[in-house]
Amino acid sequence: MQTLLLVMVLAASVEEQAARDAMKSGRYTQAVEAWERALSRSATPELWLGLAEAREAQGRLVLALYASQEAAQLAKRSGSARLESDCRARVASLKARVGFLGLRSSPPIPAGATAEVAGELIPIGAVPVSTPVDPGEVFIAWRAPGHITSTLVAQVAKGTTVTLMLPPLRPEKVEAAIPPVVPSAAPSAPQPVDASQLGAVETRKAVDTRKPLAPLLLGISGLAVTVASGAGLAVMLNQTARFQQARDQGSASLSPPYTLAEETWVKSAGFSALYTASLIGIVTGVLASAAGFTWFGLSEPVAVSAWFTAGGAAVSWSTAW
């Protein structure tokens, strides 16, 4: 346990030195990250003060204030009166440079309502709680589940307190008004119907003109498998031809010269397996293309004739009149 504690302290010292070097060169963002890594290993008042200094250099006065308050609490626990006094002095200095914002909302407040400023949630109630904010333009996101988010802007000067009344939030869904019932007109007298026309009733059937995508995807997939398998078979046939020429004429007569790696690959079981897989892929792809395109054609009043050869596939379409 003591060894682990010593390792954590040493790691924090390394990060502290990195943070101080970044502060000297004006790299405040890197300094903040180094201070935070150091604090994750060993939380001390000195490290919190270092983080407060880096945040203040960034212009994030509120975050610097929070870090200084943490340092003051740890210094009080450690019993160092001088360090606690330094921390309290920094807290007082930062409080004089930030602004304070209080938010109110007239009841009833929607369930789950929150007000957010720069990623921080601000309490809402009948009596506003003053929350420190960076001086200048402050944007407030006022939201609640099932309601439209409202964005407000407040001008807060340093050392001042601004109290803002939040407007009521509007629901997202508004029930539509029920239209008035309009009385229907009185039915007209029945018209006489010619008995000879009673049998001449036209029957119409709804026709679904949507094209199914499944057969088209099957045909396209089969065509892709055919092309890929054919390309692989062509490469292997070329390798086999080079092997035969090298065996008959010698490897030096080929361009580029035939290598031992090529010979080993042609003679391997993997080569034979891929050769067989390519042949199977071609046959499977041709059958899938034929089935997919034929199924796709028969789904509409279109006559499809398909024929396939060893070199590829062709599909011809003609409109049925």
Quickly describe the structure.
The protein is of the alpha+beta class and 321 residues long. 50% of the residues lie in helices and 17% in strands.
Q: Provide the residue-averaged pLDDT.
A: 77
Give the overall shape: flat
Helix content: 40-55%
The assigned structural class equals alpha+beta
Strand content: 15-25%
The total of beta strands comes to 9
| Cα gyration radius (Å) | 40 Å
Number of continuous helical runs? 8
Taking pLDDT < 50 over at least 5 consecutive residues as the criterion, the unreliable ranges are: 198-207, 300-321
Q: Report the order of strands and helices.
A: HHHHHEEEEEEEHHHEE
Total number of distinct structural domains? 3
Q: Biggest β-sheet, characterized? A: 4 strands, antiparallel
Spatial strand order of the main sheet: 3-2-5-6
Q: What distance lies between the first and last C-alpha atoms, to the nearest angstrom?
A: 89 Å
Describe the structure in your own words.
- 50% of the residues lie in helices and 17% in strands.
- The chain has helices at 2-24, 28-41, 45-58, 61-78, 81-97, 213-249, 260-267, 269-298; strands at 99-105, 114-117, 120-122, 131-133, 136-143, 150-156, 161-166, 302-309, 312-319.
- The model is unreliable at 198-207 and 300-321 (pLDDT under 50).
- The N and C termini lie far apart (89 Å).
- The protein is flat.
- The protein has 3 domains: 2-96, Serine Threonine Protein Phosphatase 5, Tetratricopeptide repeat; 99-166, Immunoglobulin-like (Sandwich); 213-319.
